[in-house]
Amino acid sequence: MRGSDLFVYGTLRFPEILEILLGRVPALSPASARGWRVRALPGVAYPGMVADPDGVADGVLLGGLTEAECRLLDAYEDPEYEPTLITLDGGGRRARAYVWTGPTEPYDWDPVHFAEHELARFLMHAFDVLGDPVRRRILELLADGERAAGEISAVVQEEFGISQPGVSQHLRVLRENGFTTVRAAGTRRLYSVDPAPLREIDIWLERYRRFWTQRMDALDTEIARGRRERGQRGDGRVSSAQEGAGEEGTGS
């Protein structure tokens, strides 16, 4: 079930996150839905919306989403979110929303606290997980597609000289921290990348990207200037040589 309008109440209500995920910020308008509540979830920084007859869920309505953008946002969300058609306040407008189907905390999620504290803490933890070169190499292997645990282990053992139990430990860290997913296929365990944590890292880095972008632009300018100067000096040498050759010819 997909539609062009989506009611969001958690991380997707932040324009900077939408910009990273979609490459643009759709039309945003404040919205709320009675009969729902935005709850904190155990052990994670993002929330879930659950039914509550006395509750009101505040959020934002994303308008004009394309089919491709809807598919992308569906992939961004965890499997415990169920796309559901709900009724918004103020005229009975209908929109899709991601309804949480798992356990929740007994208190509401605070978007201000998330923006100021939780996102940065989550991202620092993600950087810690990816600080190990073995785990980065595993993600590189999975970037090309799903791989069996045995195949991953063989490559990592050969390149890093660690044992199979050591590789299994790194796979467990990536899995438990949400960077990979695993499914059983007969006797094999197949791993794949979960892109959500990587998107969060990219979102956090976006605010700093301008610093190295400016430096790279400045480097490009200097390289271009150096090429021009070398070209001008080269032209001058050719002209002098030609003039000298002409004078010698005239004298003879």
How do the strands and helices of this protein lay out in sequence?
Elements: E1 6-8, H1 15-22, E2 27-40, E3 47-63, H2 67-76, E4 81-87, E5 94-100, H3 111-129, H4 133-142, E6 147-148, H5 149-160, H6 164-176, E7 180-185, E8 188-193, H7 196-251
Parallel strand pairs: 1-5
Antiparallel strand pairs: 1-3, 2-3, 4-5, 6-8, 7-8
Molecular structure report:
- With 252 residues, the chain is of the alpha+beta class.
- The chain has 2 domains: 104 residues, Roll (Hypothetical upf0131 protein ytfp), CATH 3.10.490.10; 129 residues, Arc Repressor Mutant, subunit A, CATH 1.10.10.
- Helix 1 crosses helix 7, helix 3 crosses helix 7 and helix 5 crosses helix 6.
- It starts with 5 loop residues before the first strand and ends with a helix.
Give a quick summary of the entry.
The chain is α+β, with helices and mostly antiparallel strands and 252 residues long. The protein is 51% helix and 25% strand.
Which percent range describes the beta-strand content? 15-25%
Tertiary shape:
globular
Question: How many structural domains in the coordinates?
Answer: 2
In this structure, how is the largest beta sheet organized? Answer: 5 strands, mixed
The CATH C-level class name of the largest domain: Mainly Alpha
